[in-house]
Design a protein that fits this description.
Elements (H helix, E strand, L loop, with lengths): L2 H5 L3 H23 L7 H34 L1
Helix pairs in contact: 2-3
Length: 75
């Protein structure tokens, strides 16, 4: 999933996606440690997915904060 797809999601949906991605990352690391992981490239993909989700969440937080500041300045 790319960043433009993620930016269409609500903050709550992003929180759910982040939790799912982190759980998958944990499971992949566990498989790697026990030598059961076949597709090691998936670790990199999931790590980047976690970073992408966190970035979009932060962008939404900043946008909400700026909107709040603007309302306070005008109100």
């Amino acid at each position: 999933m790319n960043a433009s797809d993620l930016s269409d999601l609500t903050y709550e949906e992003l929180v759910e996606k982040l939790a799912e991605a982190k759980e998958e990352q944990f499971n992949l690391r566990f498989q790697m440690a026990t030598n059961q992981l076949d597709n090691t490239a998936r670790l990199r993909q999931v790590r980047r997915e976690v970073a992408r989700i966190a970035t979009v969440m932060r962008q939404q937080e900043i946008a909400a904060w700026e909107a709040q500041q603007e309302v306070q300045a005008n109100g």
